[in-house]
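Batch 3, record 17
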Amino acid sequence: MNDTVDVKTLTIDGHEVSGRRGQTILEVARENDIEIPTLCHLDGLGDVGACRICMVEIAGSAKLLPACVATIFEGMEVLTNTERLQKYRRNILELLFAERNHVCSVCVSNGHCELQTLAQQQGLTHVRLPYRNPQLAVDASHERFTLDHNRCILCTRCVRVCAEIEGAHVWDVMGRGIDCTIISDLHQDWGSSSCTRCGKCVQVCPTGALFDKSKIGSDHPKYPDFLPYLNLMREAQ
Amino acid sequence: MDRSVLESDPQRVIEGMAIAAYAVGASKGFVYVRAEYPLAVARLTACLRDARRRGLLGNNIGNTPFNFDVEIRLGAGAFVCGEETALIASIEGRRGTPRPRPPYPAVSGLYGKPTLINNVETFANIAPIIRKGGRWFASIGSERSKGTKVFAITGKITNTGLVEVPMGIKLREIIEVIGGGVPGGHKFKAVQTGGPSGGCLPAEMLDIGVSYDALVKVGSIMGSGGMIVMDDTSCMVNVARFFIEFCMTESCGKCIPCRAGTAQMHTLLTRICEGHGTMDDLELLVELSDTIKNTSLCGLGQTAPNPVLSTLKYFRSEYIDHIVHKRCPAGVCNIHAPEPEARAHQNAGQEVVA
Amino acid sequence: MTQTITIDPVTRLEGHGKISIYLGDNGQVEDAHFHVTQVRGFEKFSEGRPFYEMPSLMARICGICPVSHLIASAKACEAIMSVRIPHTAAQLRRMLNLAQMVQSHALSFFYLASPDLLLGMESDPAARHIFGVVAARPELGRAGVGLRRFGQNIIELLGKKRIHPGWVVPGGVTEPLEAFKRDEILASIPEAYKNVTLALNAYKKIADSFRAEIEVFANFPSNYLSLVNEDDSIEFTDGTLRLIGSQGGVIEDGITAARFTEVIGEAVEPYSYTKFAYYKPLGYPDGSYRVGPLARLNIVDSMGTPRADKELAEFKQLEKGPVQSSFHYHHARLIEMLYGIEKIEQILSDPAILSTHVRATAGVNRNEGAGQAEAPRGTLVHQYKVDDNGLITWANLVIATGQNNNAMNKGILQAAREYVDDGKFTPGALNRIEAVIRTFDPCLSCSTHAFGQMPLALTLLNADGETIDQVIRS
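Prediction for the assembled complex:
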């Protein structure tokens, strides 16, 4: 396939659209006002394709592709919202809700939570899986922010923003599989870590796992929109 | 299989790698070995030293401008690092988790460079093919799976060990002739092929010729070449649970379907083994299997449901026995454990408990 | 040979009361126990949570009085933060608390008690419920619904939800009061006055026909505990606790939340999951006391609002000294409702109620804190201990209903003596005994049984545990 042509034409959900070589399916879809749900993706951060919510069907292939990392090719036919994909998305959400302790009613992010909003959008009405109810701790050692592992979905946005944008790389993942847990530095208290207190991780966290201590009246919307601008400024240098 | 090649004939692997490097213009090679194979590491180290002394590795090999050297990298106990992008991450010093492909390693691999990444067994085949020609290799094996394959036969079988057989050979011949059949007067029940992510095949499947396609068609995989034979004392539900437990503990945790899905499947299978399973649980198992299989990021997750799906396909009656009749036909499962508290609570939410 | 009569609920998992009545050798009633048979675990699962989450967690204890828990919890948190909240925030919380008190008392009186009071305790069980009241006395039914709506509406306006509202946080409240909300509340007050006056008049008319019940419904001398202001007027949100004796004399005064556990102890009985509060210097069970509307009206000298003051004066004529018959709890509730409406009107007339300074912020400045408030049913205390990061290490709650335990037992004993004869239940025993419990308005009887009746089973057991008589209502 000749890949030197810069402009590609493809169809998404039957709409003919075009994009540039190297663009992801998600980028092209958003440019054309076609909504593909995402969770671990955030504009301004590198993509990891980890949550599997944005999987789309490609005509002629049995394999699903994650729209946030898959690049477009000429003549691609993408389906973003088949019944099969909807079912997978709801299953993934069920897995998330049963994995840790997500109690919306008393959570600081109630009403401003991406997980909650996504579940409502996807029409999730109940969780059929057994709740695991793991015993997870709260790290309140930081003077401004708190980390509640019960609400973490391991999207790694905090890891990425601290490593890629702030450059401090305080957060990373420890352990494997279901025991994965977000840690600061080498598993030290957040309050005594190399954290610069910039607050970016709090703003990018989709749930109430990372939150500002002063915002505990369910009045904690998050504003991660500054990230692409930060990237722009850094590139300009 | 790969381990035995590294232990007994590491030169073949190095030679194959050098030939491949020459073909694609690479100057650096890595062998990623499990740290649990110290003999393979020692023998490979000695082999590399020897090769360098003889001018077969290093700069200007054979007085040509071709440079190529090989480094050994040790694993740290993660099964998932057998996945190519996780392996690459591990060599780079990062957490051994896979990443989405494309881009494939051939385009962007180790340190972002185009990388050729293959099994030890594959590289070991290269020198003989170069020497004897492609037609010779193609003459062995089946139409789409050429050459030979090494299998590790174990379990309820008379002769355990490694065998190298031509592709296309019947399963029955491997098990009954080479393996010597099931000992102790027990009856053959199933053979699990392909390692922990493989499928379990019943007696009716013994006449298929072993090849990549044929195994996939009946719900298993070639995988690592593992072949575990089971008899009437094996409980297929417990077998499925055992392999899901493995996948659950080896899951890297990056993607949700594999990380949380294998854990949930394990919970459901444990319930069934303990006699608390319901037909709803079975339905959930099937639905979860489909989701995990189709949405997981890498091969570990994509194949983790295979033991469950294949045992459900060929041994469904055993699941029904556990769920409906509360008995384990093979007598393996301890099916009289008391009802766990949490289960009663969730049921209470669904109906008025008297 | 001693016999035991047990009133056992049939199935269901919440709001359950179980009553055991013990007969002596002579077939006379010797003792009665009111059991609470579930553990909720709030004090335990709060451990490890950040302390500022406690108000919203604790609100989940109850669907009728979450505001009480919000306030007591927030006050405990403020003790940990070492802050005094802005005056406007205190007034706003006071108003929220009073609104809750009005709706909770309305529920208790109209939905739970009025079927017995207005239709009669012997009336047809099939119609002896709120809908029966609405059918027989529609204007009273409407009044009840109206008063509940009045309170719930204020709660919703202020806290965004009627059940488990937010808004109350450690440090104050999250938002100031907007003028249009104040005006909406003020506009609903005239109707509220009308409704409570209707109820008061109706009650006074029928009170005479319940002379017999008044005599035996938990009618005994006891101590009383409640919050009170320095000027001896009634107080639900601030103030300090005062304990008075059965003759009306002050036993101890000025008890702050921080001193609560110094002064009040909690005993454990093997037959119930609630604890039994008592005044430590008098020991257990002599140090037992009653809380709630009866206690409050016995302790205070005035309500602080004109109409309620008039009613209080009339109320205090019911007996010489403190009013001891628990039957009068119903009357007390109506007076408190009237006070609540008047006080809300008073609070809203201050222009400072619209001030935007409604929240103080601070971190952990002490490792423990306690807060107390008057819930509709009585005194409520929250006590927390935290580590330096603010995570709860220990929590203790003293609930109003728990402080009335001994009184309820005594009341059931009294009623049982009246209504158990010769080792058997007399007809109407079930209703009467249940009606005694209802005077206390314990939090058990309301959650699921607003319509219909409390699931109860009375079981008569001998000393060997054999059942000899049984009355079951499912």
